[in-house]
Description:
binds iron/sulfur cluster; eight-stranded mixed beta sheet; 32% helix; Rossmann fold; 12 helices; alpha/beta; four-stranded antiparallel beta sheet; globular
Amino acid sequence: MSRLLEVNNLKQYFRVGGSIFRPKYVKAVDDVTFHIDKGETLGLVGESGCGKTTTGRTILRLHEPTDGQIIYDGTDITKVDMMPYRRRMQIVFQDPYASLNPRMTVGDIVGEAIDIHKLASDKHERKERIYTMLERVGLNSEHANRYPHEFSGGQRQRIGIARALAVDPEFIVCDEPISALDVSIQAQVVNMFEELQQDLGLTYLFIAHDLNVVKHISNRIGVMYLGKLVELADSYELTFHNLHPYTKSLISAIPIPDPVESRTKKRIVLEGDVPSPLDPPTGCRFRTRCPYATEICAEQEPEFREISKGHHVACHHVEKIN
Ligand code: SF4
């Protein structure tokens, strides 16, 4: 597989006050490196506030990166005019209620992007394209004249997906696209993402706080904690041979349907809350909640290193723990 996206040492700091001489920053994304191959899905997980959504938005330059490099299809897009890339790189938002303009019909919501990128030569072609997109996501042409409030949460998310697909993208940042949906609808929408990927050859960055969802749809998974990537591996490897204590706690929290297996499974409950990103711990950011932390963890930031082929982890004591 060839590489579509490369993110090198990406940083996204937000100024949150302080003085001119002593500005204060939230380091929402801090030195994050990964790549995504064409046709692949990379899952990105972590608790809310860990920087996963900011990472996705910074890649699309919806936030200007503080530092680092974003290489898309061989071109460094960190500082270029994004207009030619807006069509190729799309986003599906978490909240299908807030992300659709309530005063626009579904047809115009989907058609807006077609207009911006001049993808239809006349009204007839525009209409045909809108209908095709609606059908592709399980809606139909009659829905085009209705307004978002007339639809259920799952249907609204389908409209959001149709809007993203309307411009023939190659890459989609799926920003917690199922978190706001009923559990019964979540599987349908995930299946649809998978089918669309197969049919259209799409590449996804799939962001979610629920590892259970991500492990089904992803080829590889990255785990973030307080702005840092702490582990990255093949989906199977991360699920069954995870190495970082934080990943182990996330995996242990996944419910097991088999009651016998579930009784024997040990849940790792982390002590304390996630520290403030305004004042993260020195050294390893996970150390205040890590049962294996020692002195070096407070003194030195662990390197994000490759332990086995394609399996990266940031922990001083990875060999001792595993
Ligand atoms: Fe825990 Fe130390 Fe490893 Fe961080 S570096 S995860 S604190 S053992």
